[in-house]
Amino acid sequence: MEFIKVTDNKEPYIALIELNRPKELNALNRQLMEEVRDALQQLDKNDAVRVIIITGNEQAFAAGADIKQMADKTAIDMLMIDQFSTWDQIRKTKKPIIAAVSGFALGGGCEFVMTCDMVIASETAKFGQPEIKIGTMPGAGGTQRLTKAVGKAKAMELILTGRFLSAEEAHFYGLVNKVVPKEMYLYEAFQLAKEIAQLSPVAVQLAKESINRSFETHLDEGLTLERKNFYLTFASEDQKEGMRAFVEKRKPNFKGK
Ligand code: DAK
Ligand 1 pocket, 25 CB below 6 A? Predict the structure, then answer.
């Protein structure tokens, strides 16, 4: 891995992916995104991992897709290379992903963050879809996910002007879970990850799938999936362990089975 660093032994059950192209503010080139895709596929299969944190560095989560790599491409180049299909893996990952964001999360960087499941932001974080300023528009979910997250009026303003949103504003609009001082954002992401990692990974994955479905389908279908996933948790040892532990007044020990 040249542009990312993966650590899975810092805390039990938690893996950390660090985007690592600091000189380019973690601009997301093709190789970096392929590395992210491969890492997510591996971690999703690894039973020793229950929660994934993705972060950049203090200056930038990511300042967008790599403009230098895209600048001279034609529409047909873009279509044929289809480099962006690698982005689908973020959405397909079954385990929960927490984005720990400091500094810039712009364009594809903001879209990447919005594809994650929860976001812890440093007070220095800046979110935005500035593609309009370079003569294009969001292409990895920005017009859809930002609109769902912050509402039509604010999404229009951000996407049509390219203005940035501060961490506090992003919190106000529900784009991030929590804003913390800049020394704390990774620590807070680990705290959140640890809390989730203690729970049944089976139930966590089924709940994540059900929540995501609410963005993709109408209510009736979402409720049907939710009910089926609820019943499915009763096929797990974890559900038996969780309910027995409650009755026996002890802490459950979830095994992911
Ligand atoms: N690409 C390439 N290089 C970048 C970059 C980017 N997005 N952002 C920054 N860099 C590089 C700069 O070129 C500079 O490199 P050198 O010139 O030193 O070699 C270095 O990082 C430091 O940047 P600055 O000197 O500009 O630093 P400043 O602090 O002055 O400014 C900034 C920071 C973040 C405000 C500024 O760098 C900036 O405006 N960056 C561009 C932000 C932007 O427009 N992002 C949107 C890019 S378009 C899709 C998937 C994804 C996408 C589309 C479709 N599909 C799945 C279909 C995404 C598209 C985009 O993200």
Answer: yes
Write out the two tokens for 122: 């440093």
Q: What is the pLDDT of residues 92-133, one digit of tens each?
A: 999 999 999 999 999 999 999 999 999 999 999 999 999 999
* pLDDT for res 84: 64
The tokens describing 243, both together, are 């309910």
Select which of 131, 141, 169, 193 is catalytic: 131
Q: Is the distance from CB of 143 to CB of 155 less than 8 angstroms? A: yes
Burial class (CB in 10 A: 0-12, 13-18, 19+), 242: middle
C-alpha 57 to ligand 1 mean position (Å): 15
What residues pair up with 101 in beta bridges, in sequence order?
Answer: 121
Query: Ligand 1 test: best mutation among 19, 23, 24, 68, most atoms within 8 Å of CB?
Result: 24
Angstrom distance (rounded) from CA 187 to CA 88 = 28
On whether the CB atoms of residues 95 and 43 are closer than 8 A, the answer is yes
- Indicate the residue type of 220: D
Q: Region 70-95: what's the mean pLDDT?
A: 87
Integer Cα distance of 155 and 150 in angstroms: 6
Q: What is the pTM of this model?
A: 0.96
pLDDT confidence tier of residue 79, bands split at 50, 70 and 90: confident
Residue reference for tokens 């929590």: 178
